[in-house]
Write a structure and sequence with these properties.
With 138 residues, this protein is an alpha+beta fold. The protein has one domain: Beta Polymerase, domain 2 (2-Layer Sandwich), CATH 3.30.460. Helices cover 43% and strands 18% of the residues. The strands form two sheets. Strands 1-2-4-3 form a four-stranded mixed sheet. A two-stranded antiparallel ribbon has the order 5-6. The two termini are 24 Å apart.
């Protein structure tokens, strides 16, 4: 897969909006949308953990061209902490429990809207990277 592109973000935003999904762009893709120069190979989405939202996520991903297995559907609907999807036009990581923040509602209240993209607040992105404590994020 190639690097994250703005056009992918638009496709995600539009599909998620059509299905009423509550989510935030996070990680490097979120930082890129906030204007910070960087690259990433996938899109990280912090998804509100509810079965209704999970079903909407599956429908949106299907619209985007992802092939979602029954097992993955079950994981998404129940809000498994981390799901990596490589079965579509680009790679997406669905994160229901990111490092450094306990509740989706807390992040949602602090979100930043960038041209219709709901993006996790930059300080929250940095806090999450610090909490994960991965060498590549340092």
């Amino acid at each position: 897969m190639g690097a994250f592109e703005y056009s992918q973000a638009r496709e995600i935003r539009d599909a998620m909006r059509r299905h009423g999904v509550r989510y935030l762009f996070i990680g490097k893709s979120g930082a890129i949308l906030l204007g910070f120069p960087d690259t990433t190979q996938d899109t990280d989405l912090f998804v509100d953990r509810s079965s209704e939202n999970g079903r909407a996520v599956v429908a949106a991903l299907n619209d985007l061209g992802f092939v979602i297995t029954d097992e993955q559907t079950g994981e998404i609907v129940r809000g498994k902490d981390f799901i990596q999807l490589k079965s579509g036009p680009f790679d997406i990581d669905l994160i229901f429990s990111p490092d450094g923040i306990e509740r989706f509602e807390d992040a949602w209240r602090r979100r930043v809207d960038v041209e219709g993209f709901p993006v996790r607040y930059l300080d929250d992105i940095i806090d999450s990277k610090q909490a994960a404590n991965r060498q590549r994020d340092r």
